[in-house]
Each structure stands twice: as structure tokens, then as C-alpha cells.
Specification:
Strands 3-2-1-4-5-6-7 form a seven-stranded parallel beta sheet, sandwiched between helices. Helix 1 (17-28) crosses helix 7 (221-232), helix 3 packs parallel to helix 4 (105-133) and helix 4 (105-133) runs parallel beside helix 5. It is of the alpha/beta class. The relative contact order is 0.13. Helix 5 (155-175) links the parallel strand 5 (136-140) and strand 6 (181-187). Helix content is 40%, strand content 13%.
């Protein structure tokens, strides 16, 4: 039997990157996927890819994760289509990088709304359905929520992702009486179209970060999704309030020169 057979999974940000990888994988594991993204046509293409593989998916319409009405409509469409919601995977987000001395307040609030408020809005809208299903919540944190960075000015990103990790723990506490589990996956440097255009670009200080990651490479969207599938499955039925770091050991070690060979 597939690990998520018959579960209704609400996944935001399914147009590309980690969201598309999550939608494809959850569907392959038997979930009925409800996706959504502001990039609606690309999210619909994800739905088509799922259908070609024999899976079931729905993409009701453009989703603005920072707009309460848009999120409520998306959740209601999912519940109406499939009779309930078992998994909320609050994946979508957007970031504007900048340091404390230079970042405009507008960019700070944009990032916090897109990365933290959006999680609260999504889970809040689906909470009653999760109570009914004794479901689970998956959030996406970051190593930015755990450590500072000497090479990336990311004040707003650090604040919002730290908030996501803390919010997840509180959701675990509030959800426990209803059988709801809540866990966070915190990626390190993941190779996506977005990161290649920014953090991994040739002119960015973090472009050579793979040399400082103990496992010697940047991650892939599938690395993150593997962790998410586990946390959403019955294999993790006794895990809640956890923050699973997926970063190749990056946040576990101090920065320093890479040795020529292992000793």
C-alpha cells in the first residue's frame, strides 16, 4: 500500500521547485493533491504531470497565500471536492533579502507576510478540517531560522523562518488534544531555479557553499520532499513538534576551510 493512500493533501506553491516536487511525490504515494500558486498556469501544469502518472490532483484557481479570502476559498474548494483535508503542507513563500541597515521596511513586511503570515492563514483556514480528520501539518522552515549568516544578509528571512519553527511547535501543542500532528522541515541550500538566480548565482558570496557542506553538495527538492513524505505518513505517527533539518550537515558544523582529504 502507498504511504499516503487516499489522504487529501493541501500543498501550496505547486508551480515549481519544492512545491511541484512535493505535489508529484505525494500523488505518487497515493494522496489526492490540491495545489495552488499565484503562477496558476504553471500549477495547472503540475496537475497535468500528476494526471499523466495516474495520480489525482486539483488546482482550483490562482492562490495568493498572503490574502485571507484567497486562502479560505482554496481550502473550501479542497474540502468540497474531496470531503475533507488530511494534510496541510504550507510550502509556498517569497523572500526579499537585505540587511538591517539597508532593507526597506516594505521588504521586511513583504517577506514576513509571505513566509510566516501565510502559514498561519493556511493552517487557520484548514484547522476545523484537520480536527475532523485528526490530520497533520507540515511547514517549511530553514536553516536561516536556526543560525545567522556571515555571507547572506537575510534579516527578514531569518525572522520569518524562526517564526515558522516556533509556530509549528505551538501548533503541535494546540493540535495534540485533537490528534493533529505538526512538524517542520528546515532545508539548507537547495538547488532550485530560484536559488540559482540568487544565492547560487556566480556573483553571490554563497555561490561556493557546497564546499562548506559536510556532505559536499547542495540539496535537491526531492531531498526535502523525502523528509516531508515521512513526516506526513503513519511512520511518523509519534512525531509532533519536530524540526527536521535537511541541509547535508551544514548547520551542524562551524564554518572553516575545507580539508584536502578526509583524515
Amino acid at each position: 500500500m502507498k504511504r499516503l493512500e487516499g489522504k487529501v493533501a493541501l500543498i501550496s506553491g505547486t508551480a515549481r521547485g519544492q512545491g511541484r516536487a512535493a505535489a508529484l511525490r505525494f500523488a505518487a504515494e497515493g494522496a489526492l493533491v490540491v495545489g495552488g500558486d499565484l503562477l496558476h498556469e504553471e500549477a495547472v501544469e503540475t496537475q497535468r504531470l500528476i494526471a499523466r502518472e495516474g495520480g489525482t490532483a486539483l488546482t482550483p484557481g490562482p492562490l495568493d497565500i498572503t490574502d485571507e479570502a484567497s486562502v479560505r476559498s482554496w481550502v473550501a474548494d479542497a474540502a468540497d471536492a474531496f470531503g475533507g483535508i488530511d494534510i496541510v503542507y504550507a510550502n509556498a513563500g517569497a523572500v526579499r533579502f537585505g540587511g538591517i541597515g539597508s532593507q526597506p521596511y516594505e521588504d521586511f513586511t513583504f517577506t514576513v507576510r509571505a513566509e510566516l503570515d501565510s502559514v498561519w492563514l493556511t493552517v487557520r483556514a484548514a484547522w476545523a478540517h484537520l480536527i475532523d480528520s485528526r490530520g497533520c501539518v507540515l511547514t517549511v522552515g530553514s536553516t536561516a531560522g536556526l543560525t545567522g549568516s556571515l555571507s547572506n544578509q537575510r534579516t527578514a528571512h531569518a525572522a520569518s523562518k524562526g517564526g515558522v519553527i516556533a509556530l509549528t511547535r505551538q501548533l503541535a501543542a494546540e493540535g495534540a488534544p485533537y490528534g493533529i500532528r505538526a512538524n517542520c522541515v528546515s532545508p539548507g541550500m537547495i538547488d532550485t531555479d530560484g536559488s540559482r538566480a540568487n544565492l547560487l548565482a556566480d556573483d553571490h558570496p554563497m555561490r561556493s557553499i557546497a564546499r562548506h557542506i559536510p556532505l559536499g553538495r547542495t540539496g535537491t527538492p526531492d531531498d526535502v520532499v523525502n523528509a516531508a513524505v515521512f513526516l506526513a505518513s503513519e511512520e511518523a505517527s509519534y512525531i509532533t513538534g519536530a524540526n527536521l533539518v535537511v541541509d547535508g550537515g551544514w548547520s551542524a558544523v562551524l564554518p572553516g576551510p575545507v580539508p584536502d582529504a578526509a583524515n
